[in-house]
Design brief:
- The complex is a heterodimer of chains A (111) and B (113).
- With 111 residues, chain A is mainly beta.
- Chain A has no helices and 11 strands.
- With 113 residues, chain B is mainly β.
- In chain B, the strands form 2 sheets. In chain B, strands 2, 4, 5, 6, 9, 10 and 11 form a 7-stranded mixed beta sheet that branches. In chain B, strands 1-3-8-7 form a 4-stranded antiparallel beta sheet, with no helix packed on it.
- In chain B, strand 5 and strand 6 form a beta hairpin.
- Classes of the chains: A mainly beta (111), B mainly beta (113).
- Chains A and B meet through strand 4, strand 5, strand 9 and strand 10 of A and strand 4, strand 5 and strand 9 of B.
């Protein structure tokens, strides 16, 4: 089946640092999505990407849809404590209406 | 505001018992999904439904079943709970043909002893 490889699995950074994470797929998706999950809650959509090459920003977050349609990255600039959580990439399955998730990147911010 | 309600939020049960996790949505979305979240595995799709009377197996469907008798509800049943089914379960919905965005419930934490 389709797989998403998300990296890194976890990150430990200082407050104020920039963060970069990415996702690659074995197959093509027509939509890439980035979610964030806070402790004890369900994931919430951060950014959605619909076209190959698309670069989209949401505040300090920037995400890009790779030109091959098999990858995407998410950058967070000037991290703050509330950025702590798990970030998931997800792809919208071309053959149906399913969303496939990566395994997540757990972001820790050191005091 | 539209929402997704999962119940119970926490449950402890014993191996072999039948367990049902409820999911109720007021988004009026046709698409509903059940995922399980485990450390090291992320979110894995268990079952999904595109509408009333429609159900489909996801990548980890063994030991689980769902039924869709109306638009609002997609209960997830574990016929005979196993310790390997200890997990956090999330229900989600999406609008067919829309952006693909999933709206998640707050999760149900199940422990099977």
């Amino acid at each position: 089946g389709q797989q998403l490889n998300q990296s890194p699995q976890s990150m430990f950074i200082q407050e104020g640092e920039d963060v970069s994470m990415n996702c690659t797929s074995s197959s093509i998706f027509n939509t890439w999505l980035w979610y964030k999950q806070d402790p004890g809650e369900g994931p919430v959509l951060l950014i959605a990407l619909y076209k190959a090459g698309e670069l989209t920003s949401n505040g300090r977050l920037t995400a890009q849809f790779g030109t091959t349609r098999k990858d995407s990255f998410l950058n967070i600039s000037a991290s703050i404590p509330s950025d702590v959580g798990i970030y998931f990439c997800a792809g919208h399955d071309l053959s149906g209406d399913k969303i496939i998730f990566g395994k997540g990147t757990r972001l820790h911010i050191l005091p | 505001d539209a929402e997704i309600t999962q119940s119970p939020r926490h449950k402890i049960t014993e191996t072999g018992r039948q367990v049902t996790l409820a999911c109720h949505q007021t988004w009026n979305h046709n698409n509903m999904f059940w995922y399980r979240q485990d450390l090291g595995h992320g979110l894995r799709l268990i079952h999904y439904s595109y509408g009333v009377q429609d159900t489909n197996k996801g990548e980890v469907s063994d030991g689980y079943s769902v039924s869709r008798s109306n638009t609002e509800d997609l209960p997830l049943t574990l016929e005979s709970a196993a310790s390997s089914q200890t997990s956090v379960y999330f229900c989600a919905t999406s609008d067919p043909g829309g952006t693909g965005e999933l709206f998640f419930g707050e999760g149900s934490r199940l422990t099977v002893l």
